[in-house]
Amino acid sequence: MKKRILALLLGGVMVLGLAACSSSGSQSPSPSASAPAASAPAESTPAEPASAVKVGGIMLHDENSGYDMAHIEGLTTACKNLGLDLDTQLIIKYNVPEDENCYDAAVDLAEQGCTIIFSDSYGHQSYMQQAASEFEDVIFVSCTGDNAAASGLANLKNIFPYTYESRYVSGVVAGMKLKELLDAGTVTDPYVGYVGAYPYAEVVSGYTAFFLGIRSIVPEAHMDVQYTQSWYDPAKESEAANALMARGCVIIGQHADSTGAPSAVQAALDGGKTAYSVGYNVDMLSVAPAAALTSAQNVWSVLYQTTLDKFLKGEEIPADFATGIKDGAVSISALGQSCAEGTAEKVEEVWAGLKDGSLNIFDCANFTVGGEHLTSYTESYGMDGAETITDGVFYESVIRSAPYFDLRIDGITELTAE
């Protein structure tokens, strides 16, 4: 069943070219592909008027995690923009782990009267699916999840921004700094490090886009990835950053949710080491005022508001929804004081290319795997053999909203992968 759904999705996307921007701006395919609509009461207009609707949120951590803070702000902003009362119509549960506690939280929210419930972590999705199967009149949205279309449940949804767009642009910022350091003779080896949480496609897609952004400026750049095996662990993230700098990396990127890596880079810079940081989720200038160049960011309010607006209007919510810079769903934070001259202008140029579709981030002409440029790839994990490359471009977040780019391209070395 899943294979048939994905095949239909791919065909529909490639042939019809559904509206909105694609993974690298405005590529021809759709930014999201919905599963064929199934009949379900959850797709109908809410039973209560908007003033009586309750929205639920399940967060893996609290506001101390940059990732969760972005979700908290995104959900509250969306509710506020749509006229919902944050005190009476929004219930958020914090520090909910990726286990049965998530199911319990989802059930509790449904029993409190929430008719649409969001969770913010990939590991929540199986428990959200369990709850969705029991509360057919409640919409469950698993942010960053990947199984809504295949689940057969009309009330289970997935949403995800085109994070790789902001990753790529933040990589361009890093590349500009790296080129400045090379041109000045400050460094001779264009060596970059990356602190990743897990070797999942979400992380691989992001660090690859970041690396390709760097290579668009410094073609000879190479990068090592150190995993922490945790989404949020300040100590491990700091240790990973220090280990990468000890190997000679001069710029450290991250797909991990704390300030551990930027703080470590700032400390190294203060100690006389040449080192700079590109963060994630939030502006890192407060912890790394001289080391932070920028951060890749998701504007979750765009996805939350689009989904909630459809729900409040009684419109169908697609099984998968993804979008990017064309809808303002991704961004980068303010450029730091250490950014190279001309960075702001280059960033605007790259954003323009993503918006008008002239720039394809995962253009296979720009990378090799095992020394070869790919023309076909059907082995993305969980994609049941679906073709992901069309006309020489890997189209990310088109068949489903969650990333599935899991290729290990030349120039990147994973130091720890389990």
TrEMBL record:
PROSITE patterns the UniProt entry points to: PROKAR_LIPOPROTEIN
Keywords: Signal
Domain of life: Bacteria
The keyword Signal is annotated on this UniProt entry: yes
Pfam families: Bmp (PF02608)
One Gene Ontology cellular component: plasma membrane
Signal peptide, first to last residue: 1-19
Membrane-crossing segments per the record: none
Domain ABC transporter substrate-binding protein PnrA-like: 65-335
Protein name: BMP family ABC transporter substrate-binding protein
Upper lineage: Bacteria, Bacillati, Bacillota, Clostridia, Eubacteriales
